[in-house]
Amino acid sequence: MIALRRLAAFVAIAEEGHITRAAERLGMQQPPLTRLLQGLEAELGVRLMERGKRGVRPTAAGAALCDEARAVLARAGGVAEAVRRAARGEQGRLAVGFTSSAALHPFVSSGLRRFREAFPGVAMVMEEAGTGELVEGLLGERLDAAFVRSAVGGVAGLAVEHLLDEPMLAALPAGHGLAEGGGEALRLSALAGEAFVLYRRPAGPGLYDAILAACRGAGFSPAVAQEAPRLTATLSLVAAGFGISVVPASMRFLGGAGIAYREIEAGAGLCAPIHLAVRRADASPVLARFRALIRGAAG
């Protein structure tokens, strides 16, 4: 295989049409360059240059080699730049997971969009799943980062950054006695005795536990009539009249007929956090870029 250095030297000779000028361009002496050309001709077994009155010019074989050499050198330069871009975190692959409720928050969607616009050379793979599945994806290195509602920092090998908190709303079937409140916030204790439809705990332990704790703080234990595998399914059950639920405020962006949303009093202590979870030991430059952008957006 011909070394890239020899190909670059040959292209310089062909482009300059003069060995001395090519040597000056390459920052070397003329005799070594002449020997390099002779060695290349010996290696290929063909004459590559012929002398003219004012210098040298490629033979037919030399012209063919020059075209191929330029293409090879261009590809080699592209490889080097790709490697440098990857080292800077500007090129590569990033797999990001999110829970269904986190995906609806404008912060998450805008953060993903900003990263794609800033680093178009990074191929992004998205995955929606429950918190448990996302944790498994991180630990199994299928995912690089995940937006979750639960503080899973206790999981060995994971690092979790708190990004924001959003309020939670009561989701009620349309026509429910508490659906109309004249714009006033609903006291959480007003939901005592209601049938609750909640996001199944193994899929979303953070929200499930927060709702139960807030209800107990308001003086009652909620009667959980139904559990759903996804928050979207939770809202479907509410619309069908199976009960009421408490959901992150961003869930109202789903709309949906048959559901009325009401704010819950601030003193209830209900909020839905969003965290970014990553593997603690992951030193990927792409992930570092992503984390920095997301942290900056969170302020």
Total beta-strand segments: 11
Helix content: 40-55%
**CATH-assigned fold name of the largest domain:** D-Maltodextrin-Binding Protein, domain 2
Which class do the helix and strand fractions yield? alpha/beta
List the total number of helices.
Answer: 10
Written as H for each helix and E for each strand, in order along the chain, the element string is HHHEEHEHHEHEEEHEHEEEH
**Main β-sheet description:** 7 strands, mixed
Shape: rod-shaped
CATH C-level category of the largest domain? Alpha Beta
The CATH H-level superfamily of the largest domain is Periplasmic binding protein-like II
* Beta-strand content: 15-25%
Number of domains: 3
Oligomerization state:
single chain
* Radius of gyration (Å): 32 Å
Could you list the spans in which at least 5 consecutive residues all have pLDDT below 50?
none
CATH architecture of the largest domain: 3-Layer(aba) Sandwich
What is the CA-CA span between the terminal residues? 54 Å
Mean pLDDT: 88
Descriptive overview:
The protein folds into 3 domains: 4-87, Arc Repressor Mutant, subunit A (Orthogonal Bundle), CATH 1.10.10.10; 92-162 and 274-298, Periplasmic binding protein-like II (D-Maltodextrin-Binding Protein, domain 2); 166-270, Periplasmic binding protein-like II (D-Maltodextrin-Binding Protein, domain 2, 3-Layer(aba) Sandwich). The chain contains 10 helices and 11 strands. It has helices spanning 4-16, 19-26, 30-44, 60-87, 100-104, 106-118, 131-139, 205-217, 231-239, 285-298, and strands at residues 49-51, 56-58, 92-98, 122-128, 145-148, 158-173, 195-199, 223-228, 245-248, 259-263, 271-279. Helix 1 (4-16) crosses helix 4 and helix 6 (106-118) crosses helix 10.
